Amino acid sequence: MARLSPKPLNLSDCERLELEQLINRHNTPQQLALRAKIILFASEGKNHRSIARTLDINRHTACLWRERWLLTSASDLAITQRLQDSERVGSPVKFNMEQVVELFALACSPPEDYGRPISHWTARELADEIMKQGIIESISVRHVGRLLEEAELKPHSYSLLVNPPLWTKNLTQSLMILLVYILVRLNVMKAESVQYR
């Protein structure tokens, strides 16, 4: 049974030169340099096995980058962009930004406003309330905690807003004293300017 040879890969002189420069550059990431070597060997007519043996990589890696290079050959992408990993899709977003903002707004409001007999929100109480209101169909307690942590919201510290710490009271008093001093100085300066006329 005859083996199929890989698709031929033809490089222009400009592409070959740019790939060689990319390989020889000291600040080129190793993954890009390896991919550039794969493309150069493929353009010399080597098959996937010989490229894999020469570079000490998996045969499928050589195949993947030859195929990807051929797929992007029609595009106007730069060579470094053609050698980049493709976008990873990941799981779809479960909550839109409006729902997350409503969760944050709920976390910043007092639980008593929603008929909760608690003094501070917990992740469990927030998850229950947001599902009860129909904002989010289903959310885990842990996910609520992660969202609050990412936003640096601490609903259990809500009492700080109602009863600010002592240093903020001292700061307010200091600002008031400074404001009175500035007003007095302005009045004195105004009186002196009237006196000299």
Q: Number of helical segments? A: 10
Task: Estimate the helix proportion, in percent.
Answer: 55-70%
- Whole-number count of domains: 3
Low-confidence stretches: none
Sheet/helix structural class:
mainly alpha
Which outline best applies?
Answer: elongated
Portion of residues in beta strands equals: under 5%
State the assembly state of the protein chains.
single chain
Q: Could you give the distance between the termini?
A: 112 Å
Q: Could you give the count of β-strands?
A: 0
The overall average pLDDT, rounded, is 82
Gyration radius over CA:
33 Å
Topology:
Elements lengths: L12 H12 L5 H14 L4 H8 L3 H13 L7 H4 L14 H12 L14 H10 L8 H10 L8 H4 L3 H30 L2
Task: Note the main attributes of this structure.
3 domains, mainly alpha, single chain, Helix-turn-helix domain-containing protein
What features would you describe in this structure?
By secondary structure, the protein is mainly alpha-helical. The protein has 3 domains: 13-82, no CATH class; 97-160, no CATH class; 164-195. The chain has 10 helices and no strands. The protein is elongated and about 90 Å long. It comes from Cyanomargarita calcarea GSE-NOS-MK-12-04C.
